[in-house]
Specification:
The protein contains four helices and six strands, in the order ααββαββββα. It is α+β, with helices and mostly antiparallel strands. Strands 2-1-6-5-4-3 form a six-stranded mixed beta sheet. The longest helix has 21 residues, at about 20-40. It is globular and about 50 Å long.
Length: about 160
């Protein structure tokens, strides 16, 4: 993990089914760390390896890619051209296990080359157990719209 990223929180509430929830949570967080490390290295193959063969990947402009190979191919020009040398910041906002083999992770983060990378996007990762590792099977990235966020916060206060 580099100095510009926030550490992922390894704290875990007890699992209702008596499973080793701490171990599963740590494994999901490790998978997210591998995603971030692959981005930071500009390695499209390593990034795509963190996704299932049939994963869906939706970026903030609305483009979507289906399958690990499409995810890899789409990131080659990203890493070679417009995001060359960029790093990823990521902070886990929520991590839950709707079933023992599925985790839904909400993160805030961003991509950039400066020392501080602003968290200008929100992501949802749907992670699945794939043998001994966790991989992402669905990813959605949304750009934060600060003006609309402020308007919604004001409206929320008015409803109380």
């Amino acid at each position: 993990m580099n100095e510009t990223t926030e550490p992922l929180d390894p704290a875990t509430p007890p699992d209702q089914a008596g499973r080793d929830a701490a171990s599963d949570r740590s494994a999901v967080l490790a998978a997210l760390d591998r995603v971030r490390a692959a981005w930071d290295a500009g390695d499209a193959t390593a990034l795509a390896a963190e996704f299932t063969d049939d994963a869906s990947y939706v970026i903030f402009v609305g483009l979507h890619y289906l399958g690990r190979d499409a995810i890899r191919r789409s990131h080659v020009p990203v890493f070679e051209k417009w995001q060359r040398g960029s790093r990823m910041s990521m902070r886990v906002v929520d991590l839950r296990f709707p079933t023992p083999d599925v985790a839904v992770v909400l993160t805030e983060g961003g991509i950039g080359t400066r020392a501080r990378i602003p968290p200008d996007k929100v992501q949802t990762f749907v992670m699945v157990r794939d043998g001994d590792v966790w991989r992402c099977t669905a990813f959605q990235n949304t750009r934060k719209q600060r003006l609309f966020m402020a308007v919604n916060r004001l409206a929320d206060r008015g409803d109380r």
